[in-house]
UniProtKB/TrEMBL annotation:
Protein name (record): DUF2007 domain-containing protein
Pfam families on file: DUF2007
Residue span(s) of domain DUF2007: 1-65
Domain of life: Bacteria
InterPro entries according to UniProt: DUF2007
């Protein structure tokens, strides 16, 4: 088991868990229950995504692609330029 990524928040963590699960990667979200205690604990490093050793390389590639993604020009609403439509 390898810890491969530290998401910024619980929403990003859940989204990445779903993305990786759709690719057949079993993901463990470390620290989900600690987020509510953020006022008492250090904020950095609470959340982490962990996968099996043999799936770590592929999972990192997918997360790197997610982090490198850019909005497609013309795919945002006129009232909110620069916003992705999901």
């Amino acid at each position: 088991m390898q810890r491969i990524y530290e998401p910024e928040n619980l929403m990003e963590a859940q989204m990445l868990v779903g993305m990786l699960a759709n690719e057949g990667i079993e993901v463990f979200l470390i620290g989900r229950d600690l987020v509510g205690a953020a006022g008492e604990l250090p904020i950095q490093g609470l959340l982490g995504l962990a996968v099996a050793d043999e799936q770590a390389g592929y999972a990192r590639q997918l997360i790197d692609a997610y982090n490198a993604a850019q909005p497609v020009l013309g795919d945002e609403p006129d009232s909110y330029p620069g916003t992705l439509i999901c």
